[in-house]
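Title: Prediction job returns without error message
Component: structure pipeline
Severity: low
Priority: P3
Assignee: unassigned

Description:
Job completed but the reporter wants confirmation the result is attached to the right record. Sequence as submitted:
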Amino acid sequence: MKLRTSLILCLFPLLFSMAACDDGGGGDYNNSPLTAEEQAAFDYTNFARTDPQGFATQYLYDLHSSGSDNGAYDDLMARDPVPALELSPGLLAAARAHSRDLNENCHTLQHDSCDGTSWSDRIWSYYDGGTIAENAAMGFGTGLSVVIAWIVDTNVPSLGHRVNLLNGSYTQVGIGQAGSYWTQDFGAGGTN
């Protein structure tokens, strides 16, 4: 596991990009159960939130030892736990539609829809909550690898993906994967 994780993260700068795009609404698999890898991303996200020290010890220690964790290990070791996220049907539909749009239409990573719709308008077309955020990535085959990538947040000075994922203000999430594109949409205060 250590070698595979190290290999993934050595390739991390080549494979990992952050941004997003969307088809402006809809999606024919919005209400289906999570795929195995979407479920893994959901579970690892909640592990990092509810037991940051456990997640850091299990998945970030080797990266920390090699100096390639971008401060994530120390950050998680110093954090207090926050509540687990609940899966939101609206955010799930938004995340899946966006990942599918990126995979089928944009073939690049961005946070706005391929048709130019803003990322926030896309999410609000599915979700009636007040506070939203989004993580997106490409080039990852597993839920664990994308969650580690979002937490390490290489080449992202703001560490925005880590901040979103570990932010206790968010109570709901939707995760969508299409090909190697991933979207994680967060919300608070929504009813769908």
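Comment from assignee: result matches the submitted record. The first helix runs from residue 2 to 10.
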